[in-house]
Amino acid sequence: MKVTEQIDALYLLKTDPLLYLVIPRVIACVTMLPILNLIFLFTSLASSIFACFIFYNIHPWIFLKSAFMALSYLDFLKSLLKTIVFGFVLSNISCSWGLTTIGGSKSVGQSTTSSVVTSLLMIFVMDFILSYIMFNQVDSAIKSL
After folding, report:
1. pTM of the complete model beyond 0.85
2. d(CA 48, CA 62)
3. 96 CB neighbour count, 10 Å cutoff
4. N or C, where is the chain less crowded by C-beta within 10 Å?
5. What total number of domains does the chain contain?
6. What is the pLDDT along the chain (145 residues), one digit of tens a residue?
7. For residue 105, is it within any domain?
8. Is 131 contained in some domain?
9. For residues 118 and 8, what is the distance between their CA atoms, to the nearest angstrom?
């Protein structure tokens, strides 16, 4: 949109591109990634149940009982928190690269590539930071007991 001067047209119409373009994308990403996380959790549990039943002859109730004994509600909450942070980071990086693109179609491709690379690196960094914080809180809570 920046290359085809649609952002400039929004300014002429006295519309803030951040409110009109960026905020809806950030909200959509922050709300949809936790929902996708839950869908993928149930899908992975269902496929694991199927594989254990077919290949190893493990009854589904035994699998579910052992899986839920190993997992806690805190694990699900941490997973949802991570996806919210990841959605915020991904949407902000993508929108910032998109709004600062100048030039022609070649620049759009370069900005897309740069956005993907930056997003991947930031996901790795944020995953490390969030995991470090979350595991240290659990360790400190265990030590205080």
Report:
1. no
2. 12
3. 13
4. C
5. 1
6. 555 567 777 777 778 877 888 899 999 999 999 999 999 999 999 999 999 999 999 999 999 999 989 988 888 999 999 999 999 999 999 999 988 888 778 888 898 999 999 999 999 999 999 998 888 876 565 566 5
7. yes
8. yes
9. 26
